[in-house]
Amino acid sequence: METTALNPREIQQFRAETKGTAGKIHFNNAGSSLNPDIVVDTVIEYLKDEALLGGYEAENKYSVALENTYTLIAKLINADVSEVAVVENASVGWGILFNGIDFKKGDEVITSEMEYVSNLIGFLHAQKVHGIVFKVIPNDAKGNFSLKALEEAISVQTKLIAITHIASSAGGMMPIVEIGKIARKNNILYLVDACQSAGHVPIDVKEIDCDMLSVTGRKYMRAPRGTGFLFIRKAAQDKVKPLFMDGHSIEWISEDDYKLRDDARRFELYEKSRALTLGLGKAIEYALNIGIDRIWQRIQYLAGIMRLRLGEMEGVTVHDIGDQKCGIVTFSLHGTESGTVKSKLAENNINVSVGIARSTLIYMNKNQLSNVVRASVHYYNTEEEIEVMCDVLKKMKH
């Protein structure tokens, strides 16, 4: 069935429900999206109840809604509720999963050139501490990941395939479903960093066939900062050791022993912001009510217009390559530093970001890029906003 496109009336409704769109053109959604008003209100109302009722008492009042956040996460990614845990951000989730693997000297991790800086640090640290080897599968000249090269790189020592789905400072995407088929065929643990993906593109962990996945709330999910979640499939939960434990992580304890919980919440700790957890749930509910397929269609449409308009401008280079592109658009203005472009756009109430080399170090070094302007669209952005940005860029050339 064909996905119904978001119509102009709906876009105006979403903008009316997002106060930030009235004063800013926000093209920094890959950094942190503008929260819907209902998400902000949800967090504030909970905090008010904490102040009036007491922290534990407020938690008890909202217990059903807090539990529903897990149900909403599971629905978003097509997982079982027992396979998700709420954490503070994607880096925490990824770190819990990666560092919980029992690496031995000589174990191999396979990744791509698009891997995020935090993950790269994780590989380097495991190399120093455990003596692992990590192999990088480069993209081809067209910017596409080579599945053939991945298969050729796999050996008996390969313990993990770790892939960032959408890179921080590039507009391409990794073929995570096809990579999942190769991982499953070879019985290799498969970890996906979906930090930029959730709320941006449809994510189905059964289709991806990943063992583990990490997500942040603040980016395309439109949730508050300081929110995120991890997924770990039931069959993989005993293959990852919890880094920290408390009374929440266990099922029972005696003076001589303990037993871990029989679900992914063994990877959580008890103390976290209940207000932000509710905000995360409300943001997911908001996106699900719109439809992730429809959101993805709108993002592709707007990103396509932005790339086309930027590509037509003299003195602008669009850096995005690969057959499948996302809502992140990266470009350079000849003779002008990316930081200067960002500042000039900010003077005109337009938010963009600067993608620095270390964020996606292997890719940026390979393409001799020290930084790029990163403009990332969301479904609440408009064609008119893209034109305003392009007009400011044109004036910078004169």
Automatic annotation (TrEMBL):
UniProt family annotation: Belongs to the class-V pyridoxal-phosphate-dependent aminotransferase family.
Cofactors: pyridoxal 5'-phosphate
Domain Aminotransferase class V stretches: 26-388
Protein name as catalogued: Aminotransferase class V-fold PLP-dependent enzyme
Sorted UniProt keywords: Aminotransferase, Pyridoxal phosphate, Transferase
Molecular functions (GO terms): transaminase activity
